[in-house]
Design brief:
It contains 11 helices and 8 strands. By secondary structure, it is of the alpha/beta class. The protein has a single domain, classed as Arginase, Chain A (3-Layer(aba) Sandwich).
């Protein structure tokens, strides 16, 4: 397994609520309080942010701060590509989920001829575009940009020229056009969607392993099906949004908490099973918001436990002293 490099992306400008920019610090505090030297074991880089743009007046209603989000995604893409070009396995720790478009673009830019699979562990599908979004928050759009979906059939918004230009820019970060095929995207735990997203999931045949299905049929069977579906993919990118966890079981320390989600052991098992395929090229953890945590720092503590455990599967010898 390749050596790990941690990419710290403290941007939260794609979200509707401030605070996920502090998620990385909350993870580090969780490690310190657990007596774990995780963040001293690996090299890291800090990606510059545009978080100051939250003070600017929102002029693009249906893709808020999209110009700066596009710049941030480009920075993340460059950082991830650079890590992979240098022979590292990037673990990306992000504020809000909009930057996942940058991560996906960076993985693709590293090996544009390779077929990329995406496993999205999340309560949300994030398949909106500026034309369909009810909120205007770009953290609900990264997968639509990665696949190249406008979803004009469900168009509800009249967008500005600037929005169109920046949306096209987002879709072409890293490499021109589509980064992955819809059949190479698999959801785990998605349970809070809008009709425009439901239509895409149905018409494109995107597989969604819901929490109740996994518990009824068994995690092993579902994961084997997922790996079989991604068998033609050369690389797999895993995105772990902490709102995939059950907010009633853990805490509400994320911007868009949803009940009836996974427990931490289930998420850990999903990621570890995928790692065993030896195709996983990048892992991202995102959307921890300590300002919203009703249980102290519980969400970050839980996410760190998962992160530490799956990293041990990536580099068992390095983690022995943690």
């Amino acid at each position: 397994m390749k050596p790990i490099k941690i990419v710290k992306n403290r941007s939260d400008i794609g979200a509707g609520t401030r605070g996920s920019d502090m998620g990385i610090d909350a993870l580090e505090i969780a490690a310190i309080n657990a007596g774990n030297n995780y963040f001293k074991q690996f090299p890291f880089l800090d990606v510059p942010t545009h978080n100051e743009s939250v003070y600017d007046k929102v002029r693009v209603r249906f893709a808020k701060r999209i110009t700066h989000v596009a710049e941030q995604c480009q920075r993340v893409s460059d950082a991830v590509k650079g890590c992979m070009d240098d022979g590292f396995f990037p673990i990306v720790l992000s504020g809000d989920h909009s930057s996942a478009l940058g991560t996906i673009s960076g993985v693709k830019a590293h090996a544009p001829e390779k077929r990329l699979g995406v496993v999205w562990i999340d309560a949300h599908a994030d398949l909106h575009s500026p034309y369909t979004t009810p909120s205007g928050n770009v953290h609900g759009m990264p997968l639509a940009a990665a696949i190249g979906l406008d979803n004009m059939e469900y168009r509800a918004n009249e967008v500005t020229k600037v929005t169109v230009e920046q949306w096209e820019r987002l879709k072409n970060i890293g490499t021109p056009g589509q980064k992955l095929r819809p059949e190479d995207l698999i959801f785990f735990g998605v349970r809070d969607t809008e009709p425009a997203e439901d239509m895409l999931i149905d018409t494109l045949g995107i597989r969604n392993y819901k929490v109740e299905e996994i518990r009824f049929r068994g995690l092993q069977k579902c994961l084997q099906e997922a790996l079989d579906q991604l068998s033609e993919c050369d690389h797999i990118y895993i995105s772990f949004d902490v709102d995939s966890l059950d907010c009633d079981l853990i805490s509400r320390g994320t911007g868009t908490p949803v009940s009836k989600g996974f427990d931490p052991a289930e998420v850990e098992s999903i990621i570890n099973w995928l790692i065993e395929s030896e195709k996983v090229a990048c892992l991202e953890v995102t959307e921890i918001n300590p300002l919203l945590d009703n249980q102290g720092n519980k969400m970050a503590e839980t996410a760190f436990q998962v992160l530490d455990a799956v990293t041990a599967r990536l580099v068992p010898s390095a983690m022995g002293a943690s």
